[in-house]
Amino acid sequence: MIYKGSCHCGAVQFEVEAPEVVECQDCNCSICSKSGYLHLIVPKSKFKLLQGEDNLTTYTFDTAEAKHKFCKICGIKSFYIPRSNPEGYDINVLCLEPQPKKLIVEEFDGKNWELHAHKLSHLSKEK
Amino acid sequence: MIQGGCHCGNISYIAKFQNEPSSYTPRVCDCKLCSSHGATYAADNNGILSIKIKNKNDVSKYKQGSRIAEFLICKICGVMIGVCYEENDSTYGAINIRSAHDYRAFGKSHPTHLTQLTDEDRIKRWKKLWFSNVKIEYEV
Predict the structure, then answer these.
(1) What is the ipTM of this complex?
(2) In this complex, do A59 and B77 lie within 8 Å of one another by their Cβ atoms?
(3) Beta strands in A13-111 (DSSP E)
(4) Beta bridge partners of B92
(5) pLDDT tens digit sequence for A11-40
(6) Are the CB atoms for A27 and A84 separated by under 8 Å?
(7) Which of A36, A26, A109, A13 lies closest to B41, judged by CA?
(8) How near does any CA of chain A get to the CA of B28, in Å?
């Protein structure tokens, strides 16, 4: 199904195709712990930014592979390009409308990213 | 004492709680802004909150809803460290414990539903629950 998504102030708007039952990851790495984020990683073709490119700021740190994008106005990170899947998009489930009928949250040990990233790498593969 | 801040280091704080952090019940607000930041708040009316900001131009004071409180959001890394309310010469505030270095130090969080409150009741609640001693220092 198609979910709508947005930041809080509405400047950033997107659509994402995902199942009614969403499996997502709750990561314990330094930025995810502070940002509050539930990760839904999808292939590039499933995501469409409708508006707000100019309202996005990109934050990088450490290897700078992940492009953490958030709204300049309200600070909400509604999606970004993840280090584990640079060919895909990582959507913040907390920003989806409607919320998925069922949410399955798996813990992801991002503090030890190198050991566990391979478990996520298939998520952006186009089927 | 709880230390915390945003991810990039532009905003940092020291929050002095009167009791052990584990004895506090942080509050999870269900409004859209707080949900999207995954925010959970803690404060001590008799404690002290000292916030240091390296560059004030890189901090957003975002207002929403009743537009009477300001959410402190780093413009560099996007992390929301907490919320403040100013009245006359006093500043009240609460920290988003997600931005604390050790947010697991706090007790189990509890949901709150505040969207129905009037502005007057909201302010009364903040004055009772939030840090009443809040200092914000700017380097630049």
Answers:
(1) 0.91
(2) yes
(3) 13-17, 21-27, 39-43, 47-51, 56-59, 68-71, 79-80, 88-92, 96-97, 102-108
(4) B85
(5) 999 999 999 999 999 999 999 999 989 999
(6) no
(7) A36
(8) 12
Encoded tokens for B57: 């131009």
Return residues 106-125 of A near B (CB < 8 Å).
none
The CATH architecture to which B2-138 belongs is Beta Complex (2.170)
Alpha-carbon distance of A103 to A99, in angstroms, equals 9
Indicate the SS3 state at residue A45.
helix
Would the CB atoms of A94 and B36 count as touching at under 8 Å? yes
B chain contacts of residue A77, beta-carbon cutoff 8 Å: 78
Instruction: Say if residues A39 and A106 touch (Cβ distance below 8 Å).
Output: no
Interface check for A30 against chain B (CB to CB < 8 A): the answer is yes
The shares of helix, strand and coil residues in chain B, as percent rounded to the nearest 5, are 20, 40, 40
CB contact set of A50 (below 8 Å; sequence gap of 6+): A13, A14, A15
Q: Model pTM?
A: 0.93
> What's the DSSP call for residue A33?
H
Which regions of chain B does DSSP assign to beta strands (E)?
2-5, 11-16, 27-29, 41-42, 48-53, 59-62, 70-74, 80-87, 90-96, 110-112, 133-138
CB contact under 8 A, A75 and B78: yes
All residues of chain B having their beta carbon less than 8 Å from the beta carbon of residue A78 are 36
Q: What tens-digit pLDDT sequence spans chain B (140 residues)?
A: 999 999 999 999 999 999 999 999 999 998 889 999 999 999 999 999 999 999 999 999 999 888 899 999 999 999 999 999 999 999 999 999 999 999 889 999 999 888 888 999 999 999 999 999 999 999 98
